[in-house]
Specification:
Number of helices: 0
Order of helices and strands: EEEEEEEE
Shape: elongated
Oligomer: single chain
Helix content: under 10%
Number of domains: 1
Strand content: 35-45%
Strand order of the largest sheet: 1-3-6-5
CATH topology: OB fold (Dihydrolipoamide Acetyltransferase, E2P)
CATH architecture: Beta Barrel
């Protein structure tokens, strides 16, 4: 005879850890080559001069310098223009 009752099964108890997204280096900060500036899902921010866009949309520095952010507008495939932040290293 069992000493404990049946516990049942919990179906919806799994959770994934946070992905640590966001801006890692703000405007005016000094960075080295290869430093991660922004971790993002999709192209919410654009890579400007002195930066490159990684395969997972991470923006990283390609040279030493200071980080700068500026607002710009890009045209989407459907013809709309939407505001985006361009991250660059000067």
């Amino acid at each position: 005879m069992s000493k404990t009752k049946a516990g049942g099964s919990a179906k919806n108890v799994r959770d994934s850890p946070g992905q640590r997204l966001g801006v890692k280096a703000y405007a005016g900060e000094t960075v080295n080559t290869g430093a991660v500036l922004v971790r993002q899902i999709g192209r919410t921010k654009l890579a400007g001069p002195g930066t490159k866009l990684g395969r997972d949309f991470t923006i990283f520095a390609t040279k030493d310098g200071k980080v700068s952010h500026r607002q710009t507008r890009i045209r989407r495939f459907d013809g709309k223009t939407v505001p985006r932040t361009e991250v660059s290293v000067i």
